[in-house]
Amino acid sequence: MDTVKLYDTTLRDGTQSEDISFTTDDKIKIAHQLDDLGIHYIEGGWPGSNPKDANFFERIKSHTFHTSRVAAFGSTCHAEVSPERDENIQALLAAETPVITIFGKSWDIHPVNAMNITLEQNLDIIYESIRYLKPRVDTLVYDAEHFFDGYKNNREYAMKTLHAAEAAQPDCLVLCDTNGGCLPHEIDRIIREVRGEVTLPLGIHCHNDSDVAVANSLVAIQAGVTHVQGTINGFGERCGNANLCSIIPNLVLKLGIPCLTDNQLKKLLHVSRYVNELANIVHDKHQPYVGASAFAHKGGVHVSAIRKDPTTYEHIPPEKVGNRQRVLVSDLSGASNVLVKAKEFGIELESKDAKVREIVRQLKDLENRGYQFEGAEASFELLMKRAMGKRPVYFELMGYRVIDERKSSKNPPFSEATIMIRVKDRVEHTAAIGNGPVNALDNALRKALERFYPELKELKLRDYKVRVLSGAAGTAAVTRVLIESGDKTSRWGTVGVSENIIQASWEALIDSIEYKLQKERIHAVT
Fold first, then answer.
1. Which helix (H) or strand (E) holds 92?
2. Mean pLDDT of 312-331
3. Is the same domain home to 359 and 401?
4. Cα-flanking dihedrals φ and ψ of residue 230, to 5°?
5. Quick check: 13 and 43 in contact, CB under 8 A?
6. Mind giving me the DSSP string for 130-172?
7. Number of domains within the chain
8. Distance (Å, rounded) from C-alpha 350 to C-alpha 417?
9. What are the pLDDT digits (tens) for 408-439?
């Protein structure tokens, strides 16, 4: 097999996901990212269904794409309405895209039970819709919706719908597992049987309701289809679509099918995260290939092995998909983890140094008390530097006080923090308000420090998470606070643990500020 055409439907099928809604601007930005990645077809939406999609197709006409071709999606014409007079068909043509994709029903229960038409009428509208559109568009794709369920329920009729479409000569017949209920062995068998009865190129479109959409897509390709549909990050209705972020590297790196170049494949992680960002979805760290944990190693035995040969615990070089190897630190860590992190942080540390054992001891002790450094590597770097006597002291806390007050039921709560710190021979005593006690404390601390360290004006708190570590003590339970901070160039995580949520937050805030100052190579003025 020379190649497989990649058809992305993130902007249409992906937006049917329960928590996802893109603006027109979002869709245009994503389309350009997909083009840069090297996707062959981008399904932009259904121009006859809503004003947003109509607006997208109107605006996209003025945009240039280097690799991708934009497709408009819609249905066959309505029964007893000719394609010339069907509003949906005419909206597809008005979109003026080089590609049009229409779907028709393959499962005999749909015409009769859902559409209230006869099985013969369904065959007629499939044929007439394709016959009308084919000479009016450069590329026409036919999606045989519910094909696999239809084939299993009534093979003869499902094949009649496919032959009706084939007779009108679309450019590709896409077999759809619309309900996502098929397993790989069924997909393989049915496609091989269909290939013996049709001559047009076949495609595959799988949903993930049985958690095998990617596997089904790969099996279909091995069975002979040359067109695969899916979405970035597997977005889609119910349980989602086949995930192109898994399909693509499996095709290129495992099956040797060059659907993207090596340089395009390196952009996969970036595109995955970009789409999540615009969808306002937290990136799934455990997602294969593009997740932050996809090439993360925690066990000491694993880390020791990958230091010698990464292939011992990595199925591909992570750089091929734009990812990177990560070594985590936890109570499962050994000296190998510490040495890898020291090298990553630019800290000179030898394997026989007694400080390595001391850092491992401190790490295990802190994790036993509730600390977690997997999402707080900045705190771990500071821990290492403290153990080695290389952590500068930027200021000394003399005390803080935080007050929450609500003056009446008509007014929101009011938070104020007062803080006293010493910087060398200067004592700063400041107060600030905030949206909650932690924000007030953060504001007061910055207010006190910024005259000494103006670089802190760039520091922003990006995320704040609190986890109760044990519910047995009720409201007196130990809590862990994880803070993600950032500036113009990077982000980092810090952690604090205490029975008092304010103290836990204070620890994480201090680490965040100290990490920023060390990152900028600021000399302590104490």
1. helix 87-94
2. 85
3. no
4. -175, -175
5. yes
6. HHHHGGGSSEEEEEEETHHHHHHH-HHHHHHHHHHHHHT--SE
7. 3
8. 44
9. 777 788 899 999 999 888 999 999 998 888 88
